[in-house]
């Protein structure tokens, strides 16, 4: 409704029992009847009478109203409609009523006001809170506007005149405890207005605490030029060095000011190449949030105090990639995958980064030769993808596919069986000279991935699985996180023998992974009866005590790796576990493959949160064995260590939200992972919680062993 006067006086509204109200402009539940009845006609006359448009006559009015009551009673008895009579306030003069028309979608306030300034209100850009129109059906165009009362309160609390005194402020014991609680919040925790004011009040005191920067930046009002200037130009340079997890948080989409992002890049520059490799995948994603890459961010005009200049992240990554060929090789493939994705705007941006990277390589010493190696890597991947696609789409049986593959590899025209030394795309530290045709094969699965044995320059072999038609970016992410967790555990002197195999996506629907000679638990049980028999065949030691005739070091490796994967798959919410994607190598290394379901998603109903099957427990000697007790202790220790780095893992996953990875896009990944860490519990209570989950799973394994139908969970 636009350009009308505000309703006043008495109104009769048609009711719609058991029908959901429709608040749209072209409503299906109107308050007026389509065909006016006798009562509607008479009520219009009454309104005219009350306004004075009809002359009053006492004797005639009494007769008329008595007759109208009779008509009303008669109409009510024969009508099936229900009406609601309302009496609105009356005004001496007409009041113009206007409401902007909006789509019938719910909106909410901009809750993520942590660092980004508010956008100008545009009804067609308002974020959706829920698609459930039964719950969120009311449009409020003013909900995104600032509350003037709260704004005035903030200005009074953060009076500019108090700044000189704030520099010397120190909290008492009670406030220090309150600040400590706030600093321990997870990255996704929103601060209340009172908490923001408290952080702002003691901002100079907090500048010596590395945990305080991200919380302080959430407390800054980014539309206030004074606060922005003091935060970025005065406090940021004097702030103590922050940890990597906080630096990664500052490179997320909520950080708009490029000076803050540049500060985060500077902190990351302290990391060595090995550590940087662990975060490289997310840092490439963070390029999407740079000012030059984001039209949405560059269009914001809330305040001139915010800087949208380049933060230097691109130059930092390129510089480190040029210095270290192994890191640069991985950076090249991460960028090339983004160039190949469907988002043309982002693909163009990443294309410019690749172009700049190649030019910097050419300017470096030996740059032409290095650029040629990258070109040859691209040609190798393109050739393998073409051959894999041909074999996948052919109707030949698997033996025929294997024969064709070996023939193609042996053909000298393919330049695959013999080539000049080339750093392998999957691991640039390994130099290969060709593919061994007679050892290569085709796996028996829907996509028929290739098993390729590469000959290395040092005489060793490097087996690789190459897939075409499968998005391997999710597997790549999971393996990266497992590699990170393995490093965090080793840093605390806990080696759980995780040994994650490397995975590299070379395109949106292709990629490769290192092949680890091993067998699935399903195949082991079928061939050997149980895991102990399998390990005993490969590592016999009849003289050992308490290891069932298996070499003690092999049992130790098995127990440790089971514990490691038990914890990491729980934290990452890995689903769809069965005996065909749980593998054991001859040396006792246990590991998982196929991470198509993560963060709690699982195609099977009621999956156990901790993935430990009966066959694994039997391989340790049973639930009452000392090896199983060690397994549980390893689990508790690993869980405790990884909880300390929860923010790092949370921020790494959060940076992947816009990567278009199936199980991460459009989901609250913070909530999914944070729930696993149970940061709300003390360390002791968290261990008890994990032990309860483990005992619940152990009980389940007994049930699975005795009830055949449930046992099929582990046998897919």
UniProtKB/TrEMBL annotation:
Coiled coil, from the record: none
Catalytic EC class: transferase
Domain PI3K/PI4K catalytic, chain residue ranges per copy: 436-702
Bilayer-spanning residue ranges: none
Limits of the PIK helical domain: 166-360
Protein keywords: ATP-binding, Kinase, Nucleotide-binding, Transferase
Any single Gene Ontology cellular-component annotation: phosphatidylinositol 3-kinase complex, class III, type II
Family the entry assigns: Belongs to the PI3/PI4-kinase family. Type III PI4K subfamily.
UniProt name for this protein: Phosphatidylinositol 3-kinase VPS34
């Amino acid at each position: 409704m636009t350009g009308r006067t505000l309703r006043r006086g008495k109104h009769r509204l048609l009711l719609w029992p058991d029908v959901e109200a429709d608040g749209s402009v072209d409503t299906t539940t109107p308050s007026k009847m389509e065909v006016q009845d006798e009562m509607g006609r008479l009520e219009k006359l009454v309104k005219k009478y009350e306004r004075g448009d009809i002359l009053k006559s006492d004797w005639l009015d009494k007769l008329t109203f008595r007759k109208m009551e009779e008509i009303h009673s008669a109409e009510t008895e024969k009508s099936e409609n229900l009406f609601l009579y309302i009496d609105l306030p009356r005004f001496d003069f007409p009041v113009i009523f206007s409401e902007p028309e909006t789509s019938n979608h719910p909106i909410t306030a901009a809750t993520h006001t942590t660092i980004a300034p508010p956008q100008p209100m545009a009804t067609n850009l308002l974020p959706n809170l829920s698609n459930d129109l039964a719950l969120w059906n009311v449009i409020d165009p003013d909900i995104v506007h600032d509350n003037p009362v709260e704004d005035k309160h903030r200005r009074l609390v953060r009076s500019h005149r108090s700044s000189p005194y704030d520099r010397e402020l120190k909290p008492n014991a009670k406030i220090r405890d309150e600040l400590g609680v706030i600093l321990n919040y997870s990255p996704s925790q929103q601060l209340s207005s009172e908490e923001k004011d408290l952080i702002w009040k003691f901002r100079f005191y907090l500048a010596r605490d590395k945990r305080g920067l991200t919380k302080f930046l959430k407390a800054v009002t980014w539309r206030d030029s004074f606060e922005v200037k003091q935060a970025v130009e005065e406090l940021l340079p004097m702030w103590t060095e922050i940890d990597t997890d906080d630096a990664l948080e500052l490179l997320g989409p909520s950080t708009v000011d490029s000076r803050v992002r540049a500060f985060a890049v500077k902190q990351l520059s302290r990391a060595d190449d090995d550590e940087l490799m662990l975060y490289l995948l997310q840092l490439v994603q963070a390029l999407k949030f740079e000012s030059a890459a984001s039209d949405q961010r560059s269009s914001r005009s809330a305040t001139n105090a915010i800087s949208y200049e380049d933060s230097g992240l691109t130059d930092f990554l390129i510089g480190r990639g040029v210095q270290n060929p192994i890191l640069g090789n991985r950076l090249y493939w991460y960028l090339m995958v983004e160039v190949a994705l469907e988002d043309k705007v982002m693909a163009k941006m990443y294309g410019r980064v690749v172009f700049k990277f190649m030019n910097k390589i050419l300017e470096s010493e030996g740059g032409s030769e290095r650029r040629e190696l990258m070109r040859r890597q691209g040609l190798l991947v393109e050739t393998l993808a073409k051959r894999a696609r041909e074999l996948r789409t052919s109707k030949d049986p698997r033996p025929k596919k294997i024969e064709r593959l070996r023939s193609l590899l042996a053909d000298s025209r393919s330049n695959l069986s013999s080539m000049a030394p080339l750093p392998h795309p999957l691991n640039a530290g390994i130099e290969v000279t060709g593919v061994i045709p007679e050892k290569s094969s085709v796996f028996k699965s829907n996509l028929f991935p290739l098993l390729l044995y590469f000959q290395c320059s040092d005489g060793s072999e490097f087996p690789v699985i190459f897939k075409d038609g499968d998005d391997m970016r999710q597997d790549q992410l999971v393996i990266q996180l497992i590699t990170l967790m393995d490093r965090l555990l080793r840093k605390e002197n806990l080696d759980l023998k995780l040994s994650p195999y490397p995975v590299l996506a070379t395109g949106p629907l292709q990629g490769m992974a290192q092949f680890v000679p091993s067998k699935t638990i399903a195949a082991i049980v079928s061939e050997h009866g149980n895991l102990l028999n399998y390990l005993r065949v490969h590592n016999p030691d009849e003289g050992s005590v308490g290891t069932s005739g298996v070499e003690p070091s092999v049992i130790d490796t098995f127990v440790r790796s089971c514990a490691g994967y038990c914890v990491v798959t729980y934290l990452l919410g890995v689903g769809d576990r069965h005996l065909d994607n749980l593998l054991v190598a001859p040396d006792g290394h246990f590991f998982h493959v196929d991470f198509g379901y993560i963060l709690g998603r699982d195609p099977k109903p009621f999956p156990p949160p901790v993935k430990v099957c009966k066959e694994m427990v039997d391989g340790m000697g049973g639930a009452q064995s000392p090896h199983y007790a060690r397994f549980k202790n390893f689990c508790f220790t690993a869980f405790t260590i990884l909880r300390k780095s929860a923010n790092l893992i949370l921020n790494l996953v959060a940076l992947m939200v816009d990567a278009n990875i199936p199980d991460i896009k459009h989901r609250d990944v913070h909530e999914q992972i944070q729930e696993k860490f149970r940061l709300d519990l003390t360390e002791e209570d968290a261990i008890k919680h994990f032990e309860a989950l483990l005992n619940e799973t152990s009980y389940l394994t007994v049930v699975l062993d005795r009830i055949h139908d449930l046992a099929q969970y582990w046998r897919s």
